[in-house]
């Protein structure tokens, strides 16, 4: 993190007219002891169902609290951003809102950053897993995390049994031999069964996240905080390696859509990867932990299991891409100290466990992730959450286009891998400057 500018001066520069408000917030944080009068009403916005939120709150000290009254407003994913911005502009916004890690930069200017004097870096690192440090910005903590939704590898047990393979791959280099054993192609290279949906973009669920996971394991965090207190792209950096990590990752990913390779397993004419897996013709499907219920409901007869995302046998970074969910305080709230007290409870041990159970996702707290899970699926989700990492996405929709253009320019032969990666890096840099 960068601390070459005093925190007070930095906050004044960053937030303008809110500078004094931030300083007052630090004082309030250190002196707040709860309401001595009537319960303070705190409004929270999120996309989780009302019933799920209520279920979690009942398991915390906030249920029937005499200090705080919580008003939860549920919004759909599609309407949240527009409604949130409109409400803040009209002065009717919430005190707290749920912030996914993919929207950190999108909403950064609307967040009251918890100063490092009020909640120290040591406290944060002792409480939450390493991947949660995505919420640590130069000006303070942008949010406190509650749950982790890691990318995992679902595998079709029936397909593996048919080819007499007893377990899913643990290393990426196993994919080459597995493609020869599992993928089925006719003389015209028409694919009837696939090992893995890699290589294309439009018909592969979570293609961007898969590529980023590969790139992170190869050695690039994709984006970092720069000296100007803005996020910047390092996607095309070499990090003193002989091969640029992002290029190595993209080369591996696109190989499986190359008809000239023996590992050829996917093309753009096939059905969407989620549906292909549900249909029983895809051996390995990379999806998020929260998809498991949907997969079970849509095809109760599908014989599948779940495993962690493979790693490189030659070292690298043991990473599983993940989406984090958290609670953030809005800069416009007139109840900063009370809001901080509420999110401290929501993300504490009791609150985090309650939301973890209600959402059926691993908690972001270290003390909870260390607890052994009996459920076979949840044990994998917990292990994957421990090694989870996210990235500073400038804009989900726009970055999707950047990665799509990168992959499709390679698979169509319009660009070499190095050219495509460099272009993606430049485009990400442009998005991050907005």
Characterization of this structure:
There is one protein chain. This protein has 434 residues and is an alpha/beta fold. It has two domains: 7-148 and 323-389, 3-Layer(aba) Sandwich (D-Maltodextrin-Binding Protein, domain 2), CATH 3.40.190; 150-321 and 393-433, Periplasmic binding protein-like II (D-Maltodextrin-Binding Protein, domain 2, 3-Layer(aba) Sandwich). Helices cover 40% and strands 17% of the residues. Strands 1, 2, 3, 6, 7, 8, 11, 12, 13 and 14 form a ten-stranded mixed sheet that branches. α1 (7-15) packs across α2, α3 runs antiparallel to α14 (349-359) and α9 crosses α10. The radius of gyration is 23 Å and the shape is globular. The two termini are 22 Å apart.
């Amino acid at each position: 993190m960068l601390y070459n500018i005093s925190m007070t001066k930095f906050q004044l520069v960053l937030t303008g007219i809110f500078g004094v408000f931030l300083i007052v917030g630090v004082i309030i944080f250190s002196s707040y002891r709860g309401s001595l009068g009537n319960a303070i009403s705190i409004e929270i916005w999120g996309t989780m169902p009302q019933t799920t939120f209520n279920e979690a709150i009942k398991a915390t000290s906030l249920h029937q609290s005499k200090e705080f009254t919580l008003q939860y407003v549920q919004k759909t994913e599609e309407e949240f951003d527009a409604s949130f911005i409109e409400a803040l502009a009209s002065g009717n916004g919430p005190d707290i809102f749920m912030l996914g890690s993919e929207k950190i930069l999108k909403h950064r200017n609307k967040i009251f950053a918890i100063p490092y004097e009020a909640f120290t870096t040591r406290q944060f690192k002792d409480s939450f897993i390493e991947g949660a440090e995505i919420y640590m910005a130069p000006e303070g903590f942008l949010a406190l995390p509650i749950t982790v939704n890691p990318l995992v590898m679902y595998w079709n047990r029936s397909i593996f049994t048919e080819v007499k393979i007893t377990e899913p791959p643990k290393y990426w280099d196993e994919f080459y031999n597995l493609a020869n054993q599992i993928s089925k192609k006719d003389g015209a290279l028409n694919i009837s069964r696939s090992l893995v949906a890699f290589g294309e973009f439009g018909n592969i669920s979570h293609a961007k996240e898969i590529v980023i996971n590969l790139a992170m394991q190869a050695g690039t965090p994709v984006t970092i905080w720069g000296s100007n207190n803005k996020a910047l792209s390092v996607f095309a950096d070499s990090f003193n390696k002989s091969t640029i990590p992002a290029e190595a990752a993209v080369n591996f990913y696109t190989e499986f859509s190359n008809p000239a390779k023996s590992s050829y397993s996917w093309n753009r004419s096939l059905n969407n990867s989620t549906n292909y897996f549900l249909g029983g013709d895809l051996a390995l499907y990379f999806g998020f932990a929260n998809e498991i219920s949907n997969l079970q409901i849509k095809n109760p007869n599908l014989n599948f299991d779940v495993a962690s995302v493979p790693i490189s046998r030659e070292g690298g970074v043991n990473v599983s891409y993940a989406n984090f969910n958290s609670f953030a305080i809005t800069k416009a709230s007139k109840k900063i100290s009370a809001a901080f007290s509420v999110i401290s409870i929501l993300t504490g041990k009791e609150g985090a466990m309650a939301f973890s159970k209600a959402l059926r996702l691993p908690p972001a707290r270290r003390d909870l992730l260390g607890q052994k899970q009996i459920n076979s699926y949840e044990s994998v989700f917990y292990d994957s959450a421990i090694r989870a990492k996210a990235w500073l996405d400038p804009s989900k929709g726009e970055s999707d286009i950047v990665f799509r253009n990168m992959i499709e320019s390679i698979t169509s032969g319009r660009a070499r891998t190095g050219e495509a990666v460099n272009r993606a890096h430049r485009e990400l840099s442009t998005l991050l400057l907005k």
